[in-house]
Write a structure and sequence with these properties.
single chain, alpha+beta, 33% helix, 32% strand
């Protein structure tokens, strides 16, 4: 599994997230969850691989600020 920051493309917008296991986290987005802001999951893209958890949080915020995803 890949640690890092990812971008989800969904029917209702985009979402930037981070995880120590991106593929597993993205699979959770695909499952129906009534509290999730992500509806109609389409695809995802790994923005960058980041192993260190503290750095991963900082890089997630960097990508949120840069891309301005609509679902964050």
């Amino acid at each position: 599994m890949t640690p890092g920051v990812y971008l989800v493309y969904a029917k209702n917008g985009t979402y930037v997230g981070q995880s120590k296991q991106i593929q597993g986290r993205v699979a959770n987005h695909k499952d129906w969850n009534p509290r999730s802001p992500i509806k109609g999951f389409i695809k995802y893209k790994i923005l960058e691989v980041v192993k260190d958890e503290q750095l991963r949080l900082k890089r997630e915020q960097y990508w949120i600020d840069k891309l301005k995803p609509t679902l964050n």
